[in-house]
Amino acid sequence: MGLPNADERAGHRTGTGSVGVPVAGGEGHTRAAIVRLLLEEGPITATAIGSALGLAPAGVRRHLDALIESGQARAGRSAPWQQKGRGRPAKQYQLTAAGRGMLGHAYDDLAGAAIRQLREIGGEEAVTEFARRRARTLVDGIDPLPAHSPEPAACGSGAATVQSGTADKAEEIATALSDAGFAASTRRVGAGVQICQHHCPVAHVAEEFPELCEAELEAFREVLGTHVQRLATIANGDCACTTHVPLTVLPTAADRPNNASPSTAAQPAADAPNDSGRSAE
Questions:
Q1: What is the β-pairing status of strands 151-152 and 248-249?
Q2: Which DSSP string corresponds to 172-188?
Q3: Can you tell me the distance from the alpha carbon of 140 to that of 151, in angstroms, rounded to the nearest whole number?
Q4: Phi (first) and psi of residue 57, to 5 degrees
Q5: How far apart are CA 167 and CA 99, in angstroms?
Q6: Is the dihedral angle over the CA atoms 160, 163, 168, 170 positive or is it negative?
Q7: Radius of gyration of the chain (CA)
């Protein structure tokens, strides 16, 4: 006896739209309903999806094409035993690992429970050491700069002598953070460069355990070989985690000719960030 094909497996939902996500209410709800079907019934054909949700074939394929383009779904041909009638086997669609990763998880709860247990067993030192080791993995493979201090700004010319090596190293850190899911970028601001993390995969855990943020900052200092300052964190409710890396030391009023005002005050950058192609929009 042959196994039921995807259309038959979805038949009990035909015309009902009962997949736990309402179809009405706009494109987002429709896309969510399709994703839910791919999760629960996949591999499934576009015809079966349209029948289950009461959608026209063209609309279903438009959503499927968008999911495939974003890497959240993939298509494959049905096996011969799954095919009804003659002709080429129908395409069947299913979620990819990336698509499943977009769905809700309980990772934050699990991570929080694990760190709380670690603190009960090993105390605060165990939590701090765990945070340090995790932070080092984020920048693993980046050669650290030797310890140094920011260069003094050039007096009289209005131009600062910038340590390009430090700026380049900050960009390496941003790239590594983006690869780890932090959607990081860098931008020049005043007499320094800022590392901006537009997303934090562990923000909810970091709210309870600030050791994670502190260890991350320590890892940045070790790689950059200089003092850095955390200006904002997502865990504290800010829109991004922002770390300032000084490149120059501005001269004091006594050092500047005629007590002129410095021209490189640390202000938000007006130019676009250097995001290595990975920053969030």
A1: parallel
A2: HHHHHHHHTT--EEEEE
A3: 27
A4: -55, -40
A5: 35
A6: negative
A7: 26
CA dihedral over 133, 135, 138, 143, signed as positive or negative: negative
pLDDT digits (tens, 9 = 90+) for 110-128: 999 999 999 999 999 999 9
SS3 of residue 160 by DSSP? strand
11 pLDDT higher than 80: no
Asked if 124 and 115 count as a contact pair (C-beta separation under 8 A), the reply is no
Decide: 223 and 215 in contact? Cβ < 8 Å: no
Averaged pLDDT for residues 20-44 = 75
Q: Report d(CA 147, CA 31) in Å as an integer.
A: 51
Residue 243 dihedral angles phi and psi, to the nearest 5°: -120, 125
pTM: 0.57
Distances (CA, A) of 121 to 114, 125, 169: 11, 10, 37
Contacts of 239 by beta carbon, 8 Å cutoff, 6+ apart: 198, 232
- Name, in order, each residue with C-beta under 8 angstroms of 215's C-beta and a sequence gap of 6 or more: 128, 131, 132, 134, 135
